[in-house]
Amino acid sequence: MEKILEKAQKIKIIFFDIDDTLRVKDSGFMPESINEVFKKLHEKGIMTGIATGRNLFGVVPEVRALKPDYYVAINGAYVENACTQKVLYKNTFSKDLVEEIIAWLRTEQSEYSFVAADSLRVSKWDKIASEAIGPVYAELKENPDYYQTEEIYQMLTISDHDDQLKLPENLADKIRLVRWHPNSSDIVPLEGSKAIGCQQVLQELGLKAENMLNFGDGLNDRELFDFAGLSVAMKVSHPELLEKADYITDSVENDGILKALQALKIID
């Protein structure tokens, strides 16, 4: 613990995942202690960022109200200074790549969703899509050709056999699947990750990885846990993340973030 506390003294920016980290995904519950955390961090001059698989449309009002300094959205594919709204980085799919993905998903009898910077569309809205996407984004409009008019940063698979989907050779060297729900996986660039997005912020600020702490719980946080100077996993985190974490804290409902920052002596 002594080494961890030494690392904590170097922290100048903290990134937070949203679902089951800042707030409970299924119920939307966010403890009042989160507001206290952000207030104290701002008072101490420690910057804050949101690092999420969601796009800007999915950053709910109560999270925006925390006034973070940066948004690392869509698993690092879109990075924005939240104060100035300046876009620091974006990594979009080409139309050709989108069409290759769609062709593959159709052979697999899987529906899909397009993720743009501040909007989403699905190829089909049904019970399967509702169970996966509903708790995060609510009901989405259907438009299987949305990529023709919008920049696409990410796609999602949507099927009741998502665990059986396997990328064909022509796609395996371009994209990867990151499961986040029994019915859905994020489709992200092969080298894309939250870590790539957070690196853009550190570069903008002239900071190093050792100056960064992050909180997370899911498989899309793996690269970030390998990259950050200090990583904290929520109690409910995926086993892989628990193994990578420098520190494991309590659940959202039990004020896990506040407890961790107090234990690390970053805030009182």
Describe the 3D structure.
The protein has helices at residues 2-8, 33-43, 61-64, 95-107, 127-137, 169-172, 194-205, 222-227, 239-244, 256-263; strands at residues 13-16, 47-51, 70-73, 78-81, 87-90, 111-115, 120-122, 154-158, 175-181, 184-189, 212-216, 230-233, 247-248. The chain is of the alpha/beta class and 268 residues long. It is built from ten helices and 13 strands. The protein has two domains: 2-90 and 192-263, HAD superfamily/HAD-like (Rossmann fold), CATH 3.40.50; 95-189, Hypothetical Protein, Haloacid Dehalogenase-like Hydrolase, Chain: A, domain 2 (2-Layer Sandwich), CATH 3.30.1240. Keywords: Hydrolase. InterPro entries: Cof (IPR000150), HAD-like_sf (IPR036412), HAD-SF_hydro_IIB (IPR006379), HAD_sf (IPR023214). This is Putative hydrolase. Pfam families: Hydrolase_3.
